[in-house]
Amino acid sequence: MDSINIKDIARICGVGVSTVSRAINNHPDINPETKNMIMQAIKEHNYIPNNSARNLKRTDSKAIAVLIKGISNPFFSKMIRVFEEEIQKKKYLFIMQRVDASEDEVDVALELIKEKKPRGIVFLGGFFSHSREKLEQLTVPFVLSTIGMTDSLEESSSYSWVSVDDFAESYKMTDYLCKLGHKRILILAATQDDESIGRLRLEGYKKALVDNGIEPDEELCVFSEVGRDCYTMDYGFMSMSRILREKKVDFTAVYAISDSIAIGACKAITECGGKIPEDYSVAGFDGLDIAHYYNPTLTTIRQPVEEMAESTIKILFDVIRGKAGHQKRVFKGELVEGESTRSV
Amino acid sequence: MDSINIKDIARICGVGVSTVSRAINNHPDINPETKNMIMQAIKEHNYIPNNSARNLKRTDSKAIAVLIKGISNPFFSKMIRVFEEEIQKKKYLFIMQRVDASEDEVDVALELIKEKKPRGIVFLGGFFSHSREKLEQLTVPFVLSTIGMTDSLEESSSYSWVSVDDFAESYKMTDYLCKLGHKRILILAATQDDESIGRLRLEGYKKALVDNGIEPDEELCVFSEVGRDCYTMDYGFMSMSRILREKKVDFTAVYAISDSIAIGACKAITECGGKIPEDYSVAGFDGLDIAHYYNPTLTTIRQPVEEMAESTIKILFDVIRGKAGHQKRVFKGELVEGESTRSV
Fold it and tell me: Which of B3, B35, B52, B85 to mutate against chain A (most A CBs within 10 Å)?
């Protein structure tokens, strides 16, 4: 008798061949009971998928892959810690994969799915402007965590999304500085061509200025070099040092789009003999622990990082386990007043 | 004809059954050519290991697992970033696993090896006082990175070790403070029962005092509560605030065994109206980026974190690929003078 094949298993179980294939390949899109039944039949009938070499190479660990753009951003360190903790609680492996700024994260994810078969994916950081067609190639559930995206994608129900409203939170901070009496607010932004949260925060800043009767001045918009990791103390320090040295623009407040940038800017101001907040008010964004411990304490927008990270994993597992559909969750940031800003 | 079995494969290849098993199970302890030959024979003769269900569950990803004790230590964030980058370059998966302070990292590793079959393991942080017998159960190559250990283990050639000399570097910092004229140097140490780098740094501090003719004063040795994550700004802040409030001890310098602790201490001093370094000199350990950007810049021991992390991965892959045996590498720290210390 010829050995049993995939069609026999499908016939025995009363399902289609593709369903058996999904069971064997641990595709998430299969009813767990059906899968159990199929695996049982495979075992009982001693069916062996025909490419044994491929089979030996199969990776079938229960794993969640986290793809990170901007791995040096300390804000992500805390997210990653919570991800790891939550994923470990679920007894899944935590696979961490860095994506370079120039790489396409969906291509990286497609490769990873093919090779490693994670049960779910978290995209952390970066920007999503991929077409719907491209995203539909992603055959495992995924959540976009603190990622900017194009409006057209926001309505899709084929994935989840967790973030603060970067535009609104940035508006809030800029409006706060305006209400303190600042009219010349310099922004340390991301790159000029940024399409991610950097752009959203810049737009929130501009809108708040306009609503406070201040015309945005392009000279006060400082951008990072393209291709450079910009959410860093180094960027804040270097650009603020240059500005203070050149003395081309006047300003009374600096709004940095991340706390790391703000701390670098504080250092540059202090090194030049300036005082914070007497000479310059400085504000950041993120709410890192160091914002509280810095000297002076930094005025910032605190993102609820633990809750956002926990929510990311909860949503992902709800989808994996079929408990709920995809969700969009927008968290509220909190404006924390530090000693680094004052009214003028 | 009966189907081919593992003995047949062994006979065909002229190797033992256990070697075939090692090839199938991706055991690291096999010559790559032998393994290739065996896998080829398996494919040609359509041999299927007899437990197909187990086979379907096999995890055979090429992965390196990194087990971390003290995941909230920012020093490790940078190590992890470099690990991820280097492991990705080798086209291996990066599996991150946190180990709680109360957990036995070797037990966690044994479980991980059984379930996930990583090709190599990095232990990051914590302390190794495991018996040689226990370590010998670890069947995949491993490297201890920035980990304290008992002397008896140091001579073992069954694993690699990468670190600075915590005793010597701590001695260097304390000696520096003594040479600045400080005689009352308070140390913010780890827990009292610490057996890891915390103990080594404390011992280096005591030895330097003695060599400078200063009797170590137990009142100046401040310990963290047991079970608490102590390499944190929070610990530095809370303990320094308490000390300044109680006013029980006199001191002119504070040596914190990590930069995070030092920054917390600086914040407490500043909040109490103290000036650094006028009222108190403060020194740290690690050489985090923030030590440079803090206000004032922090005197610290800079560990060559990138090199240490790169070396960890290089050594691990050399062992995995049979290019070299296990190595012990001790890196040199650098005393970086900041604005936070002065001579008295």
Answer: B52
Domain boundary (A41, A57, A73) is at A57
- Residue A59 with chain B: CB contacts under 8 Å: 59-61
- Which residue type does A125 have? G
- Could B56 and A267 be called an inter-chain contact, meaning their C-beta atoms sit closer than 8 Å? no
Residue A290: give the domain boundaries.
167-302
Q: Is A301 helix (H, G, I), strand (E, B) or coil?
A: strand
Query: Which are the contacts of B29, defined by CB distance < 8 A and separation ≥ 6?
Result: B22, B139
Flag whether residue A264 sits within 8 Å of chain B, measured between CB atoms: yes
Determine, yes or no, domain membership for A336.
Answer: no
Per residue in B65-103, pLDDT (tens digit) is 999 987 778 888 889 989 999 998 998 989 888 888 778
User: What is the distance between the alpha carbons of residues B168 and B254, in angstroms, rounded to a whole number?
Assistant: 18
Pick the residue of A42, A61, A259 with the most B CBs within 10 A to test the interface with B by mutation: A61
CB neighbours of residue A55 within 10 Å:
19
Tell me which chain B residue has its CA closest to the CA of residue A56.
Answer: B55
Residue of A67, A68, A96, A270 to mutate, testing the B interface (most B Cβ within 10 Å of its Cβ): A96
B74 close to A (CB below 8 A): yes
Strand partners, A122: A66, A143
- Positive or negative, the Cα torsion across A249, A253, A254, A257? negative
Angle CA A275–B237–A298, to nearest 5? 35
The answer to whether the CB atoms of A52 and B57 lie below 8 A apart is: no
Nearest chain A residue to B60 by CA distance is A59
Cis peptide before B296 (omega within 30 of 0): yes
Decide if A96 and B84 are in contact by the 8 Å CB cutoff: yes
Q: What is the CATH number of the domain that holds A14?
A: 1.10.260.40
Which residue do the tokens 């007497």 mark?
A278
pLDDT 10s digits, A257-288? 999 999 999 999 999 999 999 999 999 999 99
Residue type, A309: A
Is the domain of B200 the same as that of B211? yes
Tell me the CA end-to-end span of chain A in Å, nearest whole number. 91
Number of Cβ atoms within 10 Å of the Cβ of A152: 10
Does B88 lie in the same domain as B43?
A: no
- Residues A93 and A216 both lie in one domain: no
Predicted ipTM of the assembly: 0.76
The verdict on a CB contact (< 8 Å) between B56 and A56 is no
Tens digit of each residue's pLDDT (9 = 90 or more) over B144-193:
998 876 665 666 678 899 999 999 999 999 999 999 999 999 999 998 88
Which H helix or E strand runs over A172? Answer: helix A166-179
B92 has a chain A CB within 8 A of its CB: no
Question: What distance in Å separates the CA atoms of residue A70 and residue B295, rounded to the nearest whole number?
Answer: 26
Distance from CA of A213 to the nearest CA of B (A): 35
Tokens, residue A285: 């964004």
Cα A8 to Cα A3, A334, B113, distances in angstroms = 10, 60, 35
Residues B265 and B137 sit within 8 Å (Cβ to Cβ): no
Q: Which of residues 27-46 of B touch A (CB under 8 A)?
A: 39, 42-43, 46
B47 touches chain A (CB under 8 A): yes
Query: In this structure, are residues A161 and A328 in contact, taking their beta carbons and an 8 Å threshold?
Result: yes
- What's the mean pLDDT when you consider all of chain A? 88
- Taking the CA of residue B228 and the nearest CA in chain A, the distance in Å comes to 17
Distance of CA B245 to the CA centre of its chain: 35
Where residue A175 sits, what CATH number does that domain have? 3.40.50.2300
